[in-house]
Amino acid sequence: MKIIKKAKERTAEDNRRLRGTVAEIIDNVCENGDAALKEYSARFDGYVREELRVSRREIEEAYSRISEQELQDLKEARKNIEAFARAQRESMSEVKDFSPAPGIFLGHRIIPVSSCCCYVPGGSYPLYSTALMLITPARVAGVRRIVACSPAVHGTGSIHYKTLVAMDLAGADEIYAVGGAQAIAAFAYGTEQIRPVDMIVGPGNKFVAEAKRQCYGQIGIDFIAGPSEVLVIADGQADPEVLAADLLAQCEHDPNAKGFLLATEESLANRVIEAVGRELESLKTAGIARQSWEDYGEVVVVDSLKEAVDVANEYAPEHLEVNLENPDQIIGKLENYGSLFVGGNTAEVFGDYASGTNHTLPTVRASRYTGGVWVGTFLKVCTDQRMTAEASGKIAPLVSRMARGEGLEGHAVAAEKRLR
Ligand SMILES: NC(=O)c1ccc[n+]([C@@H]2O[C@H](COP(=O)([O-])OP(=O)(O)OC[C@H]3O[C@@H](n4cnc5c(N)ncnc54)[C@H](O)[C@@H]3O)[C@@H](O)[C@H]2O)c1
Ligand SMILES: N[C@H](CO)Cc1c[nH]c[nH+]1
Ligand SMILES: [Zn+2]
Question: Vertex 14, ends 13 and 20: CA angle to 5°?
């Protein structure tokens, strides 16, 4: 393996500072409620709103600004997201009356969470596609109270009109113009204007992701969905311009977003670096300089595809693109990714918007233990059991022996009350 370009690493001090900043925001919201929300909206987003909930009139006004084409696009993307969420829901089944021993009947029911908050990022760009990605599966799951929130466009006090339409179209019951770590704290603990929810889902920058991590327990969360990441495995048949575009697409999301290329040939790695350089130059000329490539771009030449698989599994990226002549030779060996994009035709950005899989995905190696948001994110699998008198009498001695073995006399007695 040869490292051609190395990404900067976040230090323990960076992480400590982030934890402290966010903990302070959460404490302030818990102590001062809406006053703290207003203070942070003014400081970070340049606005103060008296009413945090968005009114029906504001939503109608957003519809009046959206073009026919934009509305059609939202509907088409939503159709694919909903169809896939329904197919996934249908693949889940309940278990009823499973009998591991005579007279014992076990089962599980699939129950939606009662309420959720869907966080739609809005700091740098109005990510209205995220509204579709979160609210649509929550609806399919059957969540009764779906709240959506997003920071208002800087200095305006209004959520971007496309985000508002997407939230409404997807089926949000309540919408609030609040963002950042303070919004997560508000929906976790409640304020004067905000009734808390049971679960908060959605992506966000490092402050939002850290706030979800710190509020977990008070509320459920999907997982850590922070600044975007893409890892691309490519061989000589891949087009360097396409690879550069795919890496830079994710790097435009955030100063902390990451793009990682694993190339099987050094000449390919060099051509991609050149192509990235050209593209960055032209973006700079066009006055667009939000790319994180310089800090967080990484390029490595691997000695074999087996090594590429090992590195990808260890890195556990949010998005994994396999741009190989024969991608199927490694697909079965890839284990840690939020979403996989197979072959050069399958651009990661298609999944960002419209193919139908969800774009809210685990980052910072969380794909080692979870996939992305899906209809199941909003569903609880809750077990139940019932027993006949005979089965109860039969299992009681086993349970009381085990309970006494643990030193739990009360448990043993509760079991023995069923002896007959
Ligand atoms: N992992 C995923 O599934 C996924 C999907 C989509 C987007 N994303 C990520 O979402 C993020 C969107 O970030 P964004 O910033 O545009 O929007 P955002 O809504 O996540 O964050 C904006 C908020 O951050 C807060 N903030 C800004 N500076 C702050 C500071 N110095 N201290 C405390 N709080 C501060 C403000 O309250 C602001 O409202 C990007 O990182 C993008 O990569 C991830
Ligand atoms: N790439 C993001 C997930 O990391 C999702 C997104 C929204 N809009 C554009 N892209
Ligand atoms: Zn994206």
Answer: 85
Torsion of CA 188, 134, 371, 114, to 10 degrees: 50
Residue 254 Cβ contacting ligand 2 at under 6 Å: no
- CATH architecture, domain defined by 21-221: 3-Layer(aba) Sandwich (3.40)
Answer yes or no: is the C-beta of 225 below 6 A from any ligand 1 atom.
Answer: yes
Nearest residue (by CA) to ligand 2, atom 9, is 352
The closest of 335, 21, 395, 26 to 206, measured between CA atoms, is 21
The reply to whether the predicted model has a pTM over 0.95 is yes
- Structure token digits, residue 362: 């685990």
Q: Is 129 in the pocket of ligand 2 (CB under 6 A)?
A: yes
Give the separation between CA 267 and CA 258, rounded to whole angstroms. 22
What CATH number has the domain spanning 228-370? 3.40.50.1980
Residue nearest to atom 19 of ligand 1 (CA): 121
Show pLDDT as tens, one digit a residue, over the chain (420 residues).
Answer: 999 999 999 899 999 999 999 999 999 999 999 999 999 999 999 999 999 999 999 999 999 999 999 999 999 999 999 999 999 999 999 999 999 999 999 999 999 999 999 999 999 999 999 999 999 999 999 999 999 999 999 999 999 999 999 999 999 999 999 999 999 999 999 999 999 999 999 999 999 999 999 999 999 999 999 999 999 999 999 999 999 999 999 999 999 999 999 999 999 999 999 999 999 999 889 888 778 999 999 999 999 999 999 999 999 999 999 999 999 999 999 999 999 999 999 999 999 999 999 999 999 999 999 999 999 999 999 999 999 999 999 999 999 999 999 999 999 999 999 997
How close is the Cα of 350 to the center of ligand 2, in Å?
A: 10
Atom 33 of ligand 1, residue of closest alpha carbon: 207
- Alpha carbons within 13 A on the beta-carbon side of 188: 25
Domain segments of the chain: what residues?
A: 21-221, 228-370, 388-416
- The reply to whether 228-370 shares the fold of 21-221 is yes
